[in-house]
Design brief:
Layout: H1 2-14, E1 16-17, H2 28-34, E2 36-37, H3 39-52, E3 57-63, E4 72-80, E5 83-87, E6 99-104
Parallel strand pairs: 1-2
Antiparallel strand pairs: 3-4, 3-6, 4-5
Length: 147
């Protein structure tokens, strides 16, 4: 449980969440030096810190009820005692309400859209996820697994 509090709390306390502050190709070192980023950057840095401490970790793209505005969200899963537990260093949405989209080593593995040649214009996107009766509360000290 200590890994959950340490890596995620350090990143969440020391990195500013600033939309538009990073590029899609920025990695953990860029985020650490800039001390700013978005959920993808928070996830990359948390994964790097966990792996540096010998803890297997991966990036997970999720739908996150409670995120405002509703959008894709990047979180981390870390392996402890042969089980994977979710960590959200941004603390923007309750972990028990997250819905997995894809899992990978980093954000490049979890991209929801890839264009090999040519170009694509995303003109609209609508995402909806509801937790009833209400969003659960979240505690950083709780171990939570994605379904």
């Amino acid at each position: 449980m200590e890994w959950n509090r340490c890596a995620a709390s350090w990143v969440g306390s020391n990195i500013a969440y600033i939309p538009g502050s990073s590029r899609p190709t920025d990695g953990a070192v860029s985020t650490l030096l800039a001390r700013a980023g978005v959920c993808r950057d928070f996830a990359h840095l948390t994964v790097a810190l966990l792996r540096a401490n010998g803890i297997p970790a991966r990036v997970v793209a999720v739908y996150a009820p409670g995120l405002d505005p509703m959008d894709f969200h990047a979180v981390v899963e870390a392996c402890l005692d042969d089980a994977w537990y979710v960590v959200d260093p941004t603390c923007l949405a309750p972990r028990s309400s997250l819905v997995r989209i894809t899992t990978g080593a980093d954000a490049a593995d979890t991209a929801f859209l890839t264009v090999v040649t040519g170009s694509v214009d995303l003109t609209t996107m609508q995402i909806g996820a509801v937790v009833e009766p209400a969003l659960p509360t979240d505690s950083m000290s709780d171990l939570v697994q994605l379904r």
